[in-house]
Structures are given as structure tokens and as C-alpha cells.
Amino acid sequence: MQVYTIKQALKLPGYKITELISESDSEIHLRLEPDKGNEFLCSGCGKAHKVGYHGLVVAVVEDLPIFGKRTYLHVVKRRYKCPEYDRIYIEEIPWMKKWSRVTRRFAEHVGRLTSITTNQEAGWFFGLDDEAVYRIDKSILQERFEKKLTPIPAATNISVDEVSYLKYHRYLTNVVDVDRKVVIWNERGRKTEILDKYYEGIGQEACQQIESVALDGARTYISSTIKHAINATIVYDKFHIRQKLNWAVDMARKQELRKARKENNNELIDLMNCKQRFILLKNKSNLTKNQANYLNRLCEINKPIYEAMLLKESFLQVYDCDQPEEAQKHLESWIKTALSSTVDTFKIIAESFGRKLQFIVNWFKKKISSAISEGINNKIKRLKRMAYGYKDVEYFKLKIHQHCGLLNPRRFPQ
User: What is the pLDDT of residue 266?
Assistant: First the structure.
């Protein structure tokens, strides 16, 4: 193989190939030395030096394969005494990854592959172990994070939600740009001071330009948003409200199921077991004929379930209203009805909805939804399952930006 041909293919500025050390069916080893006149770039101060030469070292780094063969570069690096720090430093080479045994373009290819598959599979493809892929990928993502997400990007319409990253209630708070449909910020925890970090990070002027914030009704997120985004319309998301209603119906089902088991009421037990619960949570318009018959029979023989289903359906009718004033009247009437009902779980959420009434009504003023956040949460859960969990939370946050944010190489080429 001609050395000159390889040099043209490698395109490594400032260095020339002086020797083809070895070549086998699977590997190529090349020796590279700096061109004459190539200035020494100090890794300490970042400046070019011409005096203070202190010897040579050889670093072996992996580059992209040539003709399917793994390519290793034995790079001769110079050492100089830095006049600014009065210490000896090895030169910094732009096309080599700092503190790593790979070239920068090799690291970028590893990063591209990990954006579409797992680290384990990427490691198998490149012949690297999982730990090496993790170090390379994290380093690349940190560099891109500094370029694209520092300072924190602001947005006009945002959605705030949390996602679990570990068992025992360990959560990440994600802020999503609703217009661009990407995660723009995340942090560990879901307390008020956590979301405060986002608002403080984008600054007071950017906070005042936020028009709407979709939330899941968490008091911590609401208090932080009220404090910082003073011009924003806070919207209690429709998706999470439906989730609360389904929770109330399901809790009522569980209570009645316990009673039926004590009374040995086999018909009720069969109608309310766990296999049938999804019928109670399904939209009435989406029920099949058999499911509708099942639900009608259950409501006939169990008053609390019938009352719970009526309360759920009557609440959802609020979204048929056209005007905020009309919706508010409907909600106030519903809350009074729920508080006077015999279903304890609906009394609980009626009190909660009463405290957050204005945020529910705001949906009719600004029809923003955190449905995009829920979709992103599903992607994050899939990402976590593919990797069988993440020990390094900071790396997990970067991977979220890689798959669901501005670091995604498909949507936002580097």
C-alpha cells in the first residue's frame, strides 16, 4: 500500500506519514511526524511556542478504518517548556481528542452511532468495550452541550414535566420547547428550587417573554412559574386532568372490589377485576358494543361506580365549551356536585381542581398542551430500557438531549 495514497486519504493537517509500521488482515499501523514549520501548540496556555523544546513522545490513537481495517496512528508529539506556566507540556493536536486514545473524527462517528443504537452495539461495531464507548460518547456530548445549550436557550411556549430515572421516586425535571418540540433543559429533582434554576438561567428578560407554560398541576412548578414567568399563562394540562379523573375512577373501583370480595359477590368481582379496569378508563365513544354492555351492567348493580363514571363524563364535557366564562361556570358547578357526592376520591380531586380552577380555565385562552412532554417521556423511558438504566445521571441527561433535544444529529446536524 502506497504511503502517499494513505496520506491523501487521511487528511491530517500538519502531520506526514513517515512509515507504514505494519499491516495485517484486520489492522494498519502508521507512524506520523509533524511537518517542518508546523508550530507547537501548547496544551497548557493554548499558544504557539518556538523555543523551549524538551523532547518527543509517541501516542497511539485509533482513527477511522481504512478499507475495513482498524487504523492506529503512532503520532510523534513534541514536548516544550511553557514560558507562561514554567512547566513542560505536550503539544495539543486539533484533530486528536484531548485526553483520549482516538482521533476527533473517530469519536464523532462513535457519537453518531450511539444516537441511534445502544453503547453495547456501537462498541461491538467499532470493536470497543462499553466503558470506552461511554467515555468517548460522554466527552463528545459535553462538548456539544457547551456549544448549543450554554447559555440555556429560552422559549416562548414551554411545557414542564418530570420523568423517573431511578426507583424510589428519583426524578428529572424536563423543560420542553413546545414550538420546536425538543427538550431544552433538564435537572435532577422536581422541587420549586429546581425549576427556579431554569428561569434564573435564562434571565429576567427571557422570563418576561414566556407566553404560556403547560404543567401537570404540581404546586412546586406552579409556584416557581408564578414567581419568575410573570407574563405567562399557566395551563393545567388536559392530559394530566384526564389522568387524575381516571385515577379517581380506578380508586373507586378498587374500594368497591374489596367490598365485593368481603361479601362474596362473584358477579361484581368478575366485572371489576384488574383485567377489566381499562374499560372504565377508556373514552366512552371508543368502547366496543360488548364493552359498553359490560359498563352498563356494572353501573346498574353498583351505585358508586355509576356515580364515579357520571362525574368523569360530566367533567370532560367542559372541553366542549367555547368560551372561558362558560367553562368556568361548568367547572364551578361540577366541583360542587363532586364535593357532595359519595365517592371519596372525587371529593379529593374536586378540592384540588378548586384550588387550580384558573389554570384549568386558562386552557380555553391558550390551548397549549404538555402532550409533547408525555411523548418525549415515552422516548426517555425507551432510552432507559435500552441501556438497562444509567448509573451516571449526568450522562443520562446528555443522552436525553441527544435523543430528544438540540443535540440530536438527525434534526440538528453538528
Answer: 87
Asked if 29 contacts 23 with a C-beta cutoff of 8 angstroms, the reply is yes
81, 165: one domain: no
233 and 373 share one domain: yes
C-alpha distances in angstroms, 372 versus 180, 210, 239, 385? Answer: 10, 18, 10, 20
Q: 77 in a domain, yes or no?
A: yes
Residues 244 and 346 in one domain: yes
Under 8 Å between Cβ of 330 and 314? no
The mean per-residue pLDDT over the stretch 383-388 comes to 90
**Residues in a beta bridge with 235:** 214
Sheet strands (E) in 3-68: 15-23, 27-34, 40-41, 48-49, 53-66
pLDDT at 6: 65
Higher pLDDT, 4 or 399: 399
- Bridge partners, 413 (sequence order): none
Q: What is the pLDDT of residue 166?
A: 86
CA torsion, points 173, 179, 182, 187, in degrees to nearest 10? -20
CB 24 within 8 A of CB 68: no
Domain assignment present for 102: no
For 263, residues 6+ apart whose C-beta sits below 8 A from its C-beta are: none
In this structure, the answer to whether residues 299 and 326 fall within a common structural domain is: yes
pTM, two decimal places:
0.87
The count of domains in the chain is 3
Distance CA 386, CA 167 (A): 17
User: Domain residues for 311?
Assistant: 240-364
What CATH number does the domain containing 214 carry? 3.30.420.10
Q: Is residue 395 part of a domain?
A: yes
